[in-house]
Amino acid sequence: MVNVARSVSYTDVSTPLEVDATPNATSTLSFAPEDLLPQLELDWYPEVLMNMAGTVATSHQVLDSMAILSCIQTGNGCVVGKYESNPLSWSEEHSSLYTMMFAPSGGRKSAVFKQITKPIETWERLKTRQMETEYNTALTAFKMAEDELKRVIRSAQRGDEDAQAEVAGGDLQRAVDEAERAIPVLPRLLIQDATPEAMELRMMQHHERLFSCDAEGTAFNNMTGLRWDNPASFAAYLKAYSGDRLQVDRVGTGSRHRLVLENPALSVLWMAQPSFIDVIAKQKALHDQGLYARFLMMVFPSNKKNLVRSGLVEGLRKDYADAWRDVLYLMLEAEHDGEDETGVTQSHVIPLSAKAHDVAQDYEAYLIERIQDDQELEEIEAWASKAHGMAIRIAVTLQLIDRASQLVRDDKPARDLWNCEIGERWMQSAVSTMEVIEQHCLYIMSDRRKQDADATYVLGVIEKETKKAGGTITRRLLLRRVIKRLRHKHLLEPLVAQLEERGAITTNQGENGTVYINRT
């Protein structure tokens, strides 16, 4: 593993985790595989994000990681499509970032989701109200110009020579086109329950950028076609991830659909129940087209055993929520870098500092090393090959959140947001974030998930049998109890070793060579 210098605290995810394996009253299993996965640390992140994620996690009684990753993705959603980073080793890195989190029913996904993204909804309503008169006036002017053109065309069709000359001159059509361009773009960044086709149209109507937010898995079902048993439609997601040109020409029943997106950008924050992991695994097209490998993913265990009455928990801190709101508002107000002569939106360019570049290069070398020669990340090679770019996208998001908090504090304008470069600290934080997320992706995407599930099953059998036998079970008896599920006896030894490494059991060998397993 390549050593990457860090200025933030970090727990090496390769170190075996200590597990509290004390049985609880509701289950014979002492832990779920998800319990063993590493988590994000609050102090890796900008103060405003750390405070908001911390108070949301505390008040809603969820793991910090769920709130942290939601905050990162929400920050990205506010600036997606407005910038591109400029690593020294290649031309550009796009701004789109995709996140999917899995938590069981009752895991308070929706509450966390709503609390962190709420400022965007409020900002959209406020801006829409402020623009209402301007928008309606421009829309009326457009309709009047369009109606006049239609009136003259009807006269021309009846043989009116003056009308025919007026249509041929093109002035009326130019007036319609200019009036349409004068209609201001309403702030409709958020999108939830929409088909990919509807999403493409919304992107065209909103500077080619959107933030897809969904806490129930509906957006995933729309994308994959599962909702209406339609073919999957991934083109918009694939193109938007890289900012590639998307040209759509479709003819449907009673409708025509033609649009061109020159620089599409999309931010995705989806939450779903763990059962979606198995649904995703069966989506061959999702894997074959590489969309699966473009997601940051984390899976969370049930937190019900740690819940207490709400009156015993510190509520959401209003000062932290207000500071988070102000930062998001400033990021939403910061616009893209104008348009070129053809009307295509231009992005601000945010460079990496020299030290941040070194951290990014070390992380890339670390990824390459672990993809090759039967190393661990070879199991998720497609994802790992994109992890370097994801880290840079996270680093820019963290840098902009930190920059926005400084501007709010100093009462500086939103246009100053882009006057910065990616610093070493936030690049290091992004790498630490990715190294935690890679362990979750390994669990979700690779065969490790089945192995961990089998380990949990074996531990449950050990618990049951050791209670009956006074705290010890022989390996031979254990094999007889689990062979039906494992099918092959050679699969037991790695699971026993895994449980012993995690501190859930101990093993010792008797004088007669019998292996005894003790529950810790």
Number of strands: 12
Order of helices and strands: HHEEHHHEHEHHEEEHHEHEHHHHEHHEE
- How far from one another are the termini? 32 Å
Helix fraction, binned, reads 40-55%
Shape: elongated
Chain-averaged pLDDT: 82
Tell me about the biggest sheet?
5 strands, parallel
- SS-derived structural category: alpha/beta
- Total helical elements: 17
- Kindly provide the radius of gyration, computed on alpha-carbon positions and rounded to a whole number of angstroms: 27 Å
Beta-strand content: 5-15%
Strand order of the biggest β-sheet: 3-4-7-2-8
Unreliable runs:
1-30
Attribute tags:
520 residues; 17 helices
Structural write-up:
The protein has helices at 47-60, 64-79, 109-157, 161-169, 171-181, 196-205, 218-224, 235-242, 275-281, 284-288, 318-333, 354-371, 381-410, 424-445, 448-468, 475-486, 492-501, and strands spanning 83-86, 97-102, 190-191, 209-214, 246-252, 255-261, 265-272, 295-299, 348-351, 472-474, 505-509, 515-519. Mean pLDDT is 82; it is low at 1-30. 51% of the residues lie in helices and 12% in strands. The longest helix has 49 residues, at 109-157. The strands form four sheets. The protein has a five-stranded parallel β-sheet, with helices on both faces. It has 17 helices and twelve strands. With 520 residues, the chain is α/β, with parallel strands linked by helices.
TL;DR?
This protein is an alpha/beta fold and 520 residues long.
Give the topology, please.
Layout: H1 47-60, H2 64-79, E1 83-86, E2 97-102, H3 109-157, H4 161-169, H5 171-181, E3 190-191, H6 196-205, E4 209-214, H7 218-224, H8 235-242, E5 246-252, E6 255-261, E7 265-272, H9 275-281, H10 284-288, E8 295-299, H11 318-333, E9 348-351, H12 354-371, H13 381-410, H14 424-445, H15 448-468, E10 472-474, H16 475-486, H17 492-501, E11 505-509, E12 515-519
Parallel strand pairs: 1-9, 2-7, 2-8, 3-4, 4-7
Antiparallel strand pairs: 5-6, 10-12, 11-12
Helix pairs in contact: 1-2, 1-3, 1-11, 2-3, 2-11, 2-13, 3-4, 3-5, 3-11, 11-13, 12-13, 12-14, 13-14, 14-15, 15-16, 15-17
